[in-house]
Design a protein that fits this description.
alpha+beta; five-stranded antiparallel sheet; 7 strands; elongated
Length: 230
């Protein structure tokens, strides 16, 4: 078929032209189960749901880290009082404060990283598949292990600033198959995945907030409720 606006050759059933982005009248609409999103980056990124998601994520990170810190301090204090592990207070308590502070610091830098994260555009430049193996300890002596074979899938994205970003997944080719060399993508500040510019041939889409895989016919992510950028 050909684009009704610019005449470019399109795949049968295409909803949008990959050249000019025009919606094809014969395929207008995107109901549940129909393949293909749109060409172009979605304006839905400005939906308040994304800011709410980021705010909630930071809040829960803080709460979780604070909970772990309290458990660490309490646990080492009790260990010091009972003499478990050969430790006594205040040395045991100091260790608890140190570990608790580490949990809080990790949460702080995660939150800071999300706030400093910026929006940028890039292009998929390479995809690789490698057969690898790693040591798996049996839980006993450090020399008591066995080898585990796995497949490593890597997608490389180069930003307009020249920096290379890598998506690396073990034993799951979903993201490897989703992105193709030459795809234009956009990273939205603070979020977890990349939005493809051309989604017209896709049957799935990844939520840009929580990275959940969704059907292209859905309007919102079934897990976090954020709009899908299709």
């Amino acid at each position: 078929m050909q684009c009704s606006k610019c005449g470019a050759d399109l795949a049968d059933g295409a909803k949008f032209c990959h050249t000019c982005g025009a919606e094809q009248e014969a395929q207008a609409g995107c109901g549940k189960g129909k393949r293909g999103g749109r060409v172009g980056y979605s304006e839905k990124i400005h939906d308040p749901a994304f800011q709410k998601y980021l705010k909630n994520t930071s809040r829960w990170s803080s709460i979780f880290a604070a909970g772990l810190a309290v458990i660490a301090v309490a646990g080492f204090f009790i260990a010091g009082e009972t003499g478990a592990g050969g430790m006594e207070n205040p040395e045991s308590l100091y260790i608890g404060f140190g570990i608790g502070g580490m949990f809080l610091a990790i949460a702080f830098f995660q939150i800071l990283g999300r706030k400093r994260s910026t929006t940028w555009d890039g292009v998929v430049t390479d995809r690789t598949v490698k057969q690898k193996r790693r040591k798996q300890n049996t839980g006993g002596d450090k020399n008591d292990f066995y080898w585990v074979n796995y497949t490593e899938y890597t997608v490389e994205i180069r930003s307009e600033g020249g920096k290379t970003h890598r998506i690396v997944v073990d034993d799951d080719a979903t993201l490897y198959n989703y992105y193709q060399v030459g795809d234009r993508v956009r990273h939205h500040g603070g979020l977890n995945t990349y939005e493809k510019y051309d989604k017209s041939r896709d049957g799935i889409i990844f939520c840009n907030a929580c990275a959940t895989k969704c059907d292209i016919g859905d309007d919102v992510c079934f897990r976090c409720g954020c709009p899908l950028l299709k």
